[in-house]
Design brief:
- Helix content is 32%, strand content 14%.
- The protein is α+β, with helices and mostly antiparallel strands and 196 residues long.
- The protein is globular, with a radius of gyration of 17 Å.
- It comes from Candidatus Limivivens merdigallinarum.
- This is Nitroreductase family protein.
């Protein structure tokens, strides 16, 4: 028998097609709490979580991020996802946030050796919490590209983000688009666990 936590880990999938329905506040608070309780290097708790549920702001930042992201496009045999293409798979996708109704940008101190690691473990905690609550999520790296123009810089000021912090990544949250099948699991590759 597998416990609920393990089952959530095994069943979680990245979602890139979101319904317009917003995440309920009670569920959002539970997801954020999971992020706040994530491990952090030296117990510093340096990650800031900027939650944006403003559809217009998210759309604009998502388009800026897309314009400033130049991932190598997919090939026939090398791609992120056939079921739910990423911006690396499909040049026609214009919003790097995929229309998610809630976008959490994780900021961390510039120059801190473990800034990215602290954000990554917080994001993983939140993705698992979201999955356990029936909410879809997707981790998007290189968070700073969303703020790489005058509008993005103005948003940072509006949000009161400290200048000694930078956007490490975004976590997209929302309900999976109506009628979409949950992405199927990819087979686990053999030979990845080495025991001595």
């Amino acid at each position: 028998m597998t416990n609920e936590t393990i089952q959530t880990i095994l069943n979680r999938r990245s979602i890139r097609r979101f319904d317009t329905r917003q995440v309920e506040e009670e569920k959002l608070q539970q997801i954020l709490k999971a992020g706040l309780y994530a491990p952090s290097a030296g117990g510093r708790q340096g990650v800031l979580f900027a939650v944006c549920q403003d559809r217009e702001v998210n759309e604009r930042l998502g388009r800026i991020k897309r314009a400033n992201s130049h991932p190598r496009m997919a090939t026939e045999h090398c791609y992120v996802s056939r079921e739910q293409p990423s911006i690396a798979d499909d040049p026609e996708i214009k919003n790097a946030f995929y229309g998610a109704p809630s976008v959490i940008t994780l900021f961390a101190p510039k120059g801190f050796l473990f800034a990215v690691d602290d954000c990554a473990v917080a994001a993983e905690n939140m993705m698992l919490a979201a999955a356990s609550l029936g909410i879809g999520s997707c981790y998007i790296g290189q968070g700073w590209t969303a703020f790489a123009d005058p509008y993005g810089q103005e948003i940072l000021k509006t949000w009161g983000i400290r200048t000694d912090y930078y956007a490490v990544m975004q976590l997209l949250l929302g309900y999976q688009k109506e009628g979409d099948r949950h992405p199927s699991p990819k087979p686990c590759k053999a030979g990845r666990v080495l025991r001595f």
